[in-house]
């Protein structure tokens, strides 16, 4: 019983399945579209491959080792190895398919001929198996008649296919190579004529006069087109659009290169203000290009100061300096593209008799006319003032301890002094200690 099952399975595996798979690939590509490739794989990989494995398992269950003792077993083993190589060749042919090819590549030719040789050897081995079976058991004529009928039907099918259909050119899973389209009948240069085979949702099957088949987007066909309609497809090259897209791409490349290839610019610092105990330096907004800001370090006489500077800041105040002392100051911009050092400045803080560093702002006065008198005083001693209060100011001058400026001065730790402070500075011709003129909130 096991031997009969072994024989029937391998007849189906190496007679019926290869015949069906080869017939589909040879004669039914255009009729089946993409399904020819799927059915070809099914019959020759799933059918022949898995059934062969099942037949081998049965014979191992029936007969204990040793094996490969007669021509049937040796040839069967050879066919099995050749089947694995044929499957690998099929995968290679599929993966290396080039739709622009104009000739049949070597891997396709090897795949075709190895398939034919393996099938012939398998059929020879079928008869060797029948002969081996007949030596031990009587052959049932019903099996022989059935085998003859199968062989006859297969032979008639291939003869009919060759004369009625003819071998169809190689396509990739139902899609026609460009070389086949180029060989299609064209009434004029650049025009291809097709007959509409069928129209599905989104895809139309077009047939050329030479029976080539292509899949075409249905939304590009004229209205009213249906099965049997004749359509002309015009194929033209557009050199102007090609050049436009090349130029657009080249421009985009240059812009990307200019943006991402430029390093950050080192900051250029300059003096904004100097007093007896502080220096304010400033710079233009940082230019980082595509780099990422990681920090801005301030150095004074070679010593890094513990200052946290916002990347959007354009100035910084160095406080707690010695009176009438010279300093060398520079900054280092740290980015993801590296560190960039600014120019170095040499600056000397003012002496006590230098009043030009005073830069007060005026707060709330009980008599606003007094402010004009103080502005004239500042002009006489060479000092300056600002309307708005910021860290750049040295003092807040007011007579009433209230208002937004007063609150902000307390927050920024700016001395709040009375107008007598400026008058004393002018009278003594030097910067007076601010603490004796503090204006405290009552």
From TrEMBL:
Question: What Pfam families does this protein's entry cite?
Answer: CHS5_N (PF16892), Cytochrom_B561 (PF03188), fn3_2 (PF16893), PTCB-BRCT (PF12738)
Q: Tell me the SUPFAM superfamilies matching this sequence.
A: BRCT domain, Fibronectin type III
The record's subcellular locations are: Membrane
Q: Does the keyword Membrane apply?
A: yes
Query: Which residue numbers delimit the Cytochrome b561 domain?
Result: 1-167
Q: Which residues form a coiled coil?
A: none
UniProt keyword annotation of Transcription present: no
Q: Report the CDD domains cross-referenced here.
A: BRCT_CHS5_like, Chs5_N, Cyt_b561_FRRS1_like, FN3
The alphabetical list of record keywords is:
Electron transport, Membrane, Transmembrane, Transmembrane helix, Transport
What InterPro entries does the entry give?
BRCT_dom, BRCT_dom_sf, Chs5_N, CHS_Export/Cell_Fusion_Reg, Cyt_b561/ferric_Rdtase_TM, Fn3_2, FN3_dom, FN3_sf
Ranges where the BRCT domain occurs: 350-439
Which sequence ranges are marked TM in the entry? 7-28, 40-62, 74-93, 113-132, 144-165
What region holds the Fibronectin type-III domain? 263-355
> Can you name this protein?
Uncharacterized protein
């Amino acid at each position: 019983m096991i031997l009969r099952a072994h024989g029937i399975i391998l007849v189906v595996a190496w007679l019926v399945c290869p015949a069906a798979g080869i017939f589909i690939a040879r004669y039914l590509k255009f009729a089946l579209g993409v399904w020819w490739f799927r059915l070809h794989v099914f019959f020759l990989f799933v059918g022949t491959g898995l059934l062969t494995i099942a037949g081998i398992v049965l014979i191992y269950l029936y007969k204990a080792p040793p094996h490969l003792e007669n021509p049937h077993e040796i040839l069967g083993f050879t066919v099995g190895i050749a089947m694995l190589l044929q499957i690998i060749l099929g995968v290679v042919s599929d993966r290396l398919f080039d739709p622009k090819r104009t000739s049949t590549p070597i891997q396709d030719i090897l795949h075709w001929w190895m398939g034919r040789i393996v099938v012939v050897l398998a059929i020879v081995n079928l008869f060797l198996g029948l002969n081996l079976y007949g030596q031990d058991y009587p052959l049932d004529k019903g099996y022989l008649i059935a085998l003859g009928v199968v062989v006859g039907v297969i032979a008639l099918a291939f003869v009919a296919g060759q004369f009625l259909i003819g071998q169809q050119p190689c396509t990739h899973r139902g899609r026609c190579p460009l070389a086949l389209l180029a060989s299609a009948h064209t009434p004029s240069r650049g025009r291809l004529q097709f007959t509409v085979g069928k129209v599905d949702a989104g895809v139309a099957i077009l047939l050329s006069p030479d029976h080539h088949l292509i899949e075409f987007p249905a939304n590009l066909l004229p209205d009213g087109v249906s099965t049997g309609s004749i359509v002309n497809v015009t194929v033209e090259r557009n050199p102007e659009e090609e050049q436009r897209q090349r130029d657009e791409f080249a421009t985009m490349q240059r812009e990307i290169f200019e943006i991402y290839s430029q390093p950050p610019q080192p900051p250029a610092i300059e003096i904004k203000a100097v007093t007896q105990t502080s220096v304010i330096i400033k710079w233009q907004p940082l230019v980082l290009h595509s780099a990422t800001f990681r920090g801005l370090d301030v150095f004074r006489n070679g010593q890094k100061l513990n200052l946290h500077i916002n990347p959007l800041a354009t100035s910084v105040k160095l406080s707690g300096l010695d009176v009438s002392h010279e300093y060398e100051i520079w900054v280092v911009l740290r980015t993801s593209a590296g560190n960039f050092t600014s120019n170095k400045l040499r600056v000397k803080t003012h002496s006590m008799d230098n009043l030009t560093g005073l830069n007060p702002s005026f707060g709330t006065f009980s008599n606003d006319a007094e402010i004009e008198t103080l502005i004239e005083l500042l002009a006489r001693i060479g000092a300056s003032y600002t309307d708005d209060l910021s860290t750049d100011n040295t003092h807040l001058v007011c007579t009433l301890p209230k208002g937004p400026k007063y609150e902000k001065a307390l927050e920024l730790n700016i001395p709040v002094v009375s107008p007598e402070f400026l008058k004393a500075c002018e009278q003594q011709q030097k910067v007076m200690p601010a603490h004796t003129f503090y204006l405290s909130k009552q």
